[in-house]
Design goal:
The structure is a homodimer. Chain A has helices spanning 3-7, 11-23, 27-31, 53-64, 136-142; strands at 41-43, 49-51, 71-80, 84-93, 103-114, 117-129. By secondary structure, chain A is an alpha+beta fold. The first copy, chain A, has a 6-stranded mixed beta sheet with strand order 2-1-6-5-4-3. In chain A, a hairpin with a 3-residue loop joins strand 3 and strand 4 (84-93). The longest helix of chain A has 13 residues, at 11-23. Chain A binds chain B through residues 35, 37, 39-41, 43, 45-49, 51, 77-79, 81-84, 86, 88, 90, 104, 106, 108, 110, 112, 121-122, 124-130, 133, and chain B through 35, 37, 39-41, 43, 45-49, 51, 77-79, 81-84, 86, 88, 90, 104, 106, 108, 110, 112, 121-122, 124-130, 133.
């Protein structure tokens, strides 16, 4: 997909571009999706928080050096306003071994409409016990 | 503090009212701070997500039945717009035993300006390893 199109997309498109950049281990594409704001926050599952572009970039660089992360965001719950989108998703992480996961990952992704377009201002992921809960009604409605 | 004042406060005041309601184990005051929106999300540390008023209320009711939670939000990083406030804090939880904590809690709190005033739409808390990091400069500037 042409980068310019992604960068002018809706919050849903920016979110798709985010997970796409992770899958491709494309650090530059990933970092362009974040707001130009030193108060941006990124929290990886079970980790301390990272604040600002340098800390966030450095950590993603380390993670993506090991290869792409194949994550399917599912079961979206969203609150949208004209200038804000607050998304909460279950991050379905595809592992090499196809075992029943004993934990699942929850992520809150917050997007603001900036002068440059919709951008990520916060990504907060955490580990929850057990497999991801089923949400049959929401799945049917949203996907 | 009179409830009406808190309910018309700024995001910072709503956040203060939130932690105050937890300390007093005041479920009604706590739930009044949430947006009137079934997409509101609450994630307790290490737990699965809760979506909507009923699930969030029921879980807080169970937690607060054991007594108030004395939490001091520290090291605020915030992004504010006219209608949105995204706060990230370290939740300093006061335990009975004054031991050096082996973990700390990070929370993302998102507030929207609704017709009723500023309200919480998302609370995402997670556990991070080690004691809370020191942020001397931010501490000096913000507190």
């Amino acid at each position: 997909m042409p980068r310019i199109k992604l960068l002018q997309g809706s919050p849903d498109e920016i979110e798709a571009a985010y997970y796409d950049a992770l899958a491709r281990a494309d650090l530059e594409a990933l970092m362009m999706l974040w707001a130009d704001d030193e108060e941006i926050v990124c929290i990886h599952p079970g980790a301390a928080r990272l604040v600002g572009h340098i800390a966030i970039r450095n950590t993603w660089e380390e993670i993506l050096a090991r290869g792409g992360l194949h994550i399917q965001p599912r079961q979206l719950h969203a609150t949208h306003t004209m200038t804000t989108a607050i998304h909460n998703v279950i991050e379905d992480v595809r592992h090499a071994e196809n075992t029943m996961p004993e934990v699942h990952i929850i992520a809150t992704n917050v997007y603001l409409k900036t002068a440059q377009g919709w951008r990520i201002v916060a990504h907060h992921a955490s580990v929850a016990p057990g497999p991801a809960p089923a949400e049959p009604i929401a799945e049917t409605m949203l996907h």
